[in-house]
Automatic annotation (TrEMBL):
PANTHER family per the UniProt record, alphabetical: QUINONE OXIDOREDUCTASE-LIKE PROTEIN 2, SHORT-CHAIN DEHYDROGENASE/REDUCTASE
GO molecular function annotation: oxidoreductase activity; zinc ion binding
Organism: Microbulbifer thermotolerans
Domain of life: Bacteria
SMART domains, alphabetized: PKS_ER
Gene3D superfamilies in the cross-refs: Medium-chain alcohol dehydrogenases, catalytic domain, NAD(P)-binding Rossmann-like Domain
Name the record gives this protein: Zinc-binding dehydrogenase
Length: 353
């Protein structure tokens, strides 16, 4: 790596008075409690890389964590955020693979809404030269989610038809791209005609604008599927399962129907939806030869080898840069979260530092 190899990597505390800016909540339960604050930079651990963050990717998991509806939500005060991109500013004495000045994108088990992040090298990836930082911050979580759903659980094979819900969102759009790259036939669903138009502009012709009675809509179209990717839940998920072919797979990785309308959860509404959630009888599933699988990507944090394997596989798939639909200043995290929660977003919502 030329002159960069000679960088002094001795562990030293940061200069006196050096600080970082973070969005932190004192505890889950109310998004309004998320506050912008500064704090002193800690000494860089010898095994970590320090990244000056330039962009942060937003995910629905952030909303669910802040409102306390996410099973992996930390107890007490925490900084939300699962993915970021930026520049390496320092490297611990026992860390390797990166040097100051490198452009990187990375993942973190919370802590992403920060201007500086200390991260182990295993959770960082080089940022492609022709991508900007916002595109880098938009890539890791949605790509890993879509790839794991399609390949590890969905076992997608060339020629299979895949129904992808929320196809204009970050994960959905990446799943549409990956399905096509793997030889499958993606059929996307969206909640508005505007989003359908945008998908068609991106080259996806098979798009359904979901009607209130989605089961009846699928019956009318006569469509059936080998694989369904769902992060909505409720009646949409139930109708999707009914449209599976024999040997079809329903892969669930979220439940957008539980998204709070406001800053705090509506527990009565959530309880009602929970009681009415789809239920599956394994004996019926055996008879119809259809499967339901579900996952939470956060578990990858503790399985570095598996995550590296998934990233290596993704690296072999030719894909365009991710679509960043809206960019907000880092100081406008509340506006960005409101926009993401509104359901109006196309592509990824990103904070820029």
């Amino acid at each position: 790596m030329g002159a960069r190899a000679a960088v002094d990597r001795r562990e030293n505390p940061p200069p006196a008075g050096e600080r970082r800016t973070v969005w932190q909540t004192p505890g889950a339960g109310d998004i309004a409690r998320l506050c912008l604050r500064t704090e002193p930079l800690a000494t860089l651990p010898v095994t970590s890389v320090r990244v000056t963050v330039r962009a942060v990717g937003l995910n629905f998991a952030d909303i669910f964590a802040l409102t306390g509806l996410y099973s992996a939500t930390p107890r007490g005060a925490f900084i939300p955020g699962l993915e970021f991109a930026g520049e390496v500013s320092a490297v611990g004495g026992e860390a390797s693979g990166f040097s100051p000045g490198d452009r990187v994108m990375g993942v973190t088990r919370f802590g992403g809404y920060a201007s500086v992040i200390d991260c182990e090298p295993d959770y960082l990836m080089p940022l492609p030269d022709d991508w900007d930082f916002a595109q880098g911050a938009a890539w890791p979580v949605q790509s890993l989610t879509a790839w794991y759903a399609l390949t590890r659980l969905g076992a997608l094979r060339s020629g299979e038809r895949v129904l992808i819900h929320s196809a204009a969102g970050g994960v959905g759009l990446q799943a549409m791209q990956l399905t096509r790259a793997l030889g499958g036939s993606p059929v996307g669903t969206v909640g508005s005609e505007d989003k359908a138009v945008r998908l068609r502009e991106l080259g996806f012709d098979d798009v359904l604008v979901r009607e209130k009675n989605f089961h009846r809509q699928l019956q009318r179209t006569g469509l059936s599927f080998d694989l369904v990717l769902d992060a909505i839940g409720g009646a949409v998920q139930k109708a999707s399962f009914a449209a599976l072919k024999p040997m079809g797979r329903l892969v669930v990785f979220g439940a957008a129907e539980f998204t709070p309308r406001g800053k705090r959860p509506d527990y009565l509404r959530a309880a009602w939806r929970y009681l009415r959630r789809p239920r599956y009888d394994v004996m019926d599933m055996i008879s119809s030869n259809r499967s339901v699988l579900a996952f939470n990507l956060i578990w990858l944090w503790d399985r570095k080898d598996e995550m590296q394997s998934l990233l290596a596989e993704l690296g072999d798939v030719p894909l365009p840069p991710p679509l960043v639909g809206r960019r907000f200043p880092f100081a406008d995290a509340h506006a960005a979260l409101d926009f993401l929660r509104s359901g109006r977003s196309v592509g990824k919502v990103v904070l820029e530092c």
